[in-house]
UniProtKB/TrEMBL annotation:
Keyword Nucleus attached: no
UniProt keyword list: ATP-binding, Nucleotide-binding, Plant defense, Repeat
Domain Disease resistance N-terminal: residue ranges: 10-102
Gene3D superfamilies attached to this UniProt entry: 1.20.5.4130, Helical domain of apoptotic protease-activating factors (1.10.8.430), P-loop containing nucleotide triphosphate hydrolases (3.40.50.300), Winged helix-like DNA-binding domain superfamily/Winged helix DNA-binding domain (1.10.10.10)
Protein name: Disease resistance RPP13-like protein 1
């Protein structure tokens, strides 16, 4: 189910680009100026809206019905074709505008424009064929539309991600490895007086999905020193839907008897009274941007707690930490060390945690662990998956498979949550990043220029430059843990391997990368292509390759 939802978001993002193009003044001017049928473009838009309406259902169904999968592939290809056509119309419109301006020009500018007109001369026929190409596109969409009923596709608001099972404060410490250093640092902070003038300090644990934020918070929460220090403690799993009433109730349940009321005022008064100047530790696990704005209101009754009280918040986003005014520095949870990952893996993958009895599996196991790049969620999921498998071939199969081959594991759904939380414009910027090689340290400015060239950036205010918009997009993705600062190359950024896999999964064969002189089959669908020379880190990016044999 989760896999299906990813594809849906990608297609919706593509449709949004198309609708933007259809509404752009260049396209409209061109259509009117060339007496092309206005209604033809409206028809194209209507057809697009029809397929859009059933997209969510189609994406769920594609995994059980190969015909639906095929339908989606055709749709993606048609959307790219439509986007290209509209791009071409916009370019033609610009060219015509330049020609018109040419009448008022003299000298070298005029000469240049006559050269450019001469170069473009063979394209004159092509311009007249735009109308027939729009018709062809409508025809393709019509075929897809006719199949909607036959495939049993229904209109719908879209599938919601299934709710995650909530975390609790309990943890099996014998299964947790590493994180001692960060735990002790945080412990000192927790047991000390507040660093700010606030009565209650917020301490944040930030990291990508599955990095072990909840686990670290559990370790802290259950530590005897913490239990002895705080008079009251409460653990609340917040998750995507931050409901102030529910969270207030959960805190109350944690520190006193439950109160059967739906009245927020009564609940807040009771909470305030129960805290009665006592030292209080509250863990708010898994807070997302959508909900953290409620923090302002939740905070007020908490101010009744005693001096030195703390709130520990775990989140994937530094923005949440900022909105909740978490004290600096935030605790970033990076990769689990290779040794700790291996200990975790052996504990789960081998009977009694003993890998020595299976030397033929150990070397494959180490490669599998390396593939997880310090993400405990992935190490744990793959270790557990391999527990019952003793055949070398089965281990090799896992090693060679990609993230989307691990459909029944928790890894992809967990990462998809972050992807789903992104607004449409960031979804396509992120998916595009699959064009980089894995582990490639990319430069912020370079990426922003690429996004600009693809037309991914949208100006929301006239007084802001395109580069600044790109900068905002970039920092959004950085704050949500999609990008990380490179440890080896200062000023560069990287994507975690599994996040890169996710981007690749989303963009599919529409984004292709050629590394060095390696041969790679490029299908007609390839829309973005990057050629990378590892020796010089040189990159050349192409947009939409047109087959010569067509
Ligand atoms: N240090 C560790 N040792 C062993 N297992 C760990 C460790 N850290 C995390 N895990 C395991 O990895 C999985 C993911 O961890 P956790 O739920 O803490 O991640 P998270 O960062 O809170 O993820 P999310 O952003 O999805 O909430 C869990 O099954 C957890 O038990
Ligand atoms: Mg968590």
């Amino acid at each position: 189910m989760a896999l299906a939802l990813v594809g849906g978001a990608f297609l919706s993002a593509s449709l949004q680009v198309l609708f933007d193009r259809l509404a752009s003044s260049e396209v409209l001017h061109f259509i009117r100026g060339h007496k092309l049928s206005d209604s033809l473009l409206s028809e194209l838009k209507i057809k697009l809206l029809i397929v859009d309406a059933v997209l969510n259902h189609a994406e769920v169904k594609q995994f059980t019905e190969p015909a639906v999968k095929e339908w989606l592939l055709h749709l993606k290809g048609t959307l790219y074709d439509a986007k290209d056509l509209l791009d071409e119309i916009a370019t033609e419109a610009l060219r015509c505008k330049m020609e018109a301006d040419d009448h008022s020009q003299t000298g070298s500018a005029k000469e240049w424009n006559s050269i450019s007109t001469w170069v473009k001369a063979p394209l004159a026929n092509y311009r007249s064929s735009i109308e027939s190409r729009v018709k062809e596109m409508i025809g393709k969409l019509e075929v897809l539309e006719k199949a909607i009923d036959k495939l049993g596709l229904k209109r719908g608001d879209g599938e919601k991600l299934p709710p995650r099972s909530p975390s609790t404060s309990l943890v099996d410490e014998s299964c947790v490895f590493g994180r001692n250093e960060i735990k002790e640092e945080m412990m000192t902070r927790l047991l000390s007086d507040n660093v700010s003038t606030n009565k209650i300090d917020v301490i944040s644990i930030v990291g990508m999905g599955g990095a072990g934020k909840t686990t670290l918070a559990q370790l802290l929460y259950n530590d005897a020193r913490v239990k002895g220090h705080f008079a009251l403690t409460a653990w609340v799993c917040v998750s995507e839907e931050f409901c102030l009433l529910k969270v207030t109730k959960s805190i109350l349940e944690g520190i006193s008897s439950a109160m059967q009321s739906e009245n927020l005022d009564q609940l807040q008064l009771k909470l305030k009274g129960s805290l009665g100047d006592k030292k209080f530790l509250l863990v708010l696990d898994d807070v997302w941007e959508k909900g953290c704005r409620e923090w302002d209101r939740l905070r007020i009754p908490l101010l009744a707690a005693g001096k030195g009280s703390k709130v520990v918040v775990t989140t994937r986003s530094t923005k949440v930490a900022a909105v909740m005014q978490a004290v600096h520095p935030h605790y970033f949870l990076g990769e689990l060390s290779a040794d700790d990952c291996w200990s975790l893996f052996t504990k789960l993958a081998f009977e009694n945690g003993d890998s020595t009895a299976f030397p033929q599996l150990e070397s494959i196991g180490r490669k599998i662990v390396a593939k997880c790049q310090g993400l405990p969620l992935a190490v744990k999921a793959l270790g557990s998956l391999l527990y019952s498998k003793v055949e070398k071939g089965e281990w090799e199969e896992i090693l060679e498979s990609e993230i989307w081959g691990w459909q029944n594991l928790e890894i992809l759904p967990s990462l998809i949550l972050s992807y789903h939380d992104l607004p449409l414009h960031l979804k396509r910027c992120f998916a595009y990043c699959s064009i980089f090689p894995k582990d490639h340290g990319f430069d912020k400015k370079e990426l922003i220029l690429l996004w600009m060239a693809e037309g991914f950036l949208r100006l929301s205010q006239s007084n802001i430059r395109m580069e600044e918009v790109g900068d905002l997009y970039f920092h959004e993705l950085l704050s949500k843990s999609f990008f990380q600062r490179s440890v080896t190359q200062e000023s560069c950024f990287v994507m975690h391997d599994l996040i890169h896999d996710l981007a690749q999964y989303i963009s599919g064969e529409f984004c292709v990368r050629l590394e060095d002189d390696q041969m790679h089959e490029i299908t007609e669908k390839a829309h973005h292509l990057l050629h990378f020379k590892s020796s010089s880190s040189e990159m050349v990016v192409f947009k939409r390759l047109r087959p010569l044999w067509k």
